[in-house]
Write a structure and sequence with these properties.
Helix content is 26%, strand content 21%. It is an alpha/beta fold and 372 residues long.
Length: 372
């Protein structure tokens, strides 16, 4: 499917859509999604002509600042209408104050389980984007022991967990045994073991969402689709992202499979796209959508995000999704079958608004207020 490329900043999302509205009951958990991790301050330089050259000074045409790390996922979930609770350690500095305010006030994320750690400074990542590439430099120290995950995670419909080979996170078992649906991803195994037995918390997860390389290494297969089927023997739902080819999923409980191709876009910055994909899939799953619709929605939100610079800055809200859907339907030459794949959006997206698309979002910079 063709997609108009969004390179301008978009307006702060307005949560006109609650995907779970028809499912909510008075005795529901207070939160849709719980997650925990480390919040970074991301500083993004854009518009560089080339990579910085040793011994010279480079000027960037643009700069943005935003919460990063686990904040990318939390922001993506909140902008899709999920009631999101985050447990994180925040630095005892201006960066930490800025990130706290941006997440709590700007995005409406619950930070009750979070805390500011006295004497600990915020981790920082500087990202430089140029020639469709990016270079990142990070600095930080490990948070104190037992930070930030609380002893008892708040009750939530779902939680997103990053599995670590060879390590258990007690909160995952605690949440899973209370009925929270755990969606897990995993990073690169630096040990080289690639042993599923080392992912001990996988037994408490409903869904596992690795990329193609990770899935094939963990299963010893040479095909990501075969890898997904192999993973479905260990976890009820296996979702393997295929990069430019889209994503493939297997529901081991029913035998259902689904594959949705990626939307072709001009990718400016892939930072946080994987987090946005997971957020979209979680939202669709909690809303009880068909498997193929969940994959299509997750891929769409990720595609919209890579057309922007920055992690949490780029996460789309429902205004952007609705504007994209109206725009692609108005373009000539669209494949009817491709449009049909996203027809489920008709009953979800906000109505026509006066603002054009791409929408503009002010780049939040420390020391300045937000503008629209």
């Amino acid at each position: 499917m063709k997609a108009s490329n969004a390179i301008a900043r978009k307006a702060p999302p307005h949560r006109q859509v609650d995907p779970l509205a028809d499912l909510r009951q008075p005795d529901d958990p207070p939160w849709d999604v719980y997650l925990t991790g480390t919040v970074f301050l991301d500083i993004i330089f854009t518009g560089l002509e080339s990579a910085p050259v040793r011994g010279t000074e480079s000027w960037a045409r643009g700069m943005g600042s935003s919460p990063g790390g686990v904040a990318n996922m939390a922001t993506a979930l909140a902008r899709l209408g999920m009631r999101t609770s985050l447990a994180a350690a925040f630095g005892d500095d201006h960066y930490g104050e800025y990130c706290w305010d941006a997440l709590e006030t700007g995005e409406g994320i619950d930070l009750t389980p979070s805390r500011t750690v006295p004497g600990w400074h915020s981790p920082v990542t500087v990202s430089m984007a140029y020639d469709d590439e990016r270079t990142m430099v990070s600095h930080g120290h490990e948070p104190p022991p037992e930070e930030p995950a609380p002893d008892r995670p708040p009750h939530a419909r779902a939680a997103v967990a990053a599995l670590t080979p060879g390590r258990r996170d007690p909160w995952i078992e605690q949440a899973g045994r209370k009925g929270t649906r755990i969606f897990a991803d995993v990073g690169w195994d630096d040990t080289g073991a690639w042993d599923l037995a080392g992912l001990a918390d996988l037994e408490f997860c409903e869904a596992f969402l690795p990329n193609a390389q990770e899935a094939m290494r963990y299963t010893g297969t040479d095909c990501p689709r075969r890898a997904a089927h192999a993973l479905a023997r260990y976890v009820p739902l296996a979702v393997v992202t295929l990069g430019a080819e889209g994503a493939y999923a297997v529901d081991g409980r029913t035998g259902e499979t689904a594959e949705v191709p990626a939307i072709a876009v001009e990718a400016l910055d892939p930072t946080g796209a994987g987090d946005v994909f997971v957020a979209g899939f979680v939202a669709g799953t909690l809303a009880d959508w068909p498997l193929a619709d969940r994959l299509a929605f997750a891929g769409l939100t990720a595609a919209l995000s890579v057309q922007e610079f920055g992690g949490s800055l780029s996460a789309p809200g429902w205004s952007e999704i609705g504007a994209w859907w109206r725009k692609v339907q108005s373009l000539p030459g669209q494949d009817p079958a491709a449009l049909k794949r996203y027809a489920f959006l008709d009953g979800l997206v906000p109505g026509e608004c006066a603002r054009p698309w791409p929408l503009r979002r002010a780049v939040p910079t420390i020391g300045f207020g937000r503008t629209v």
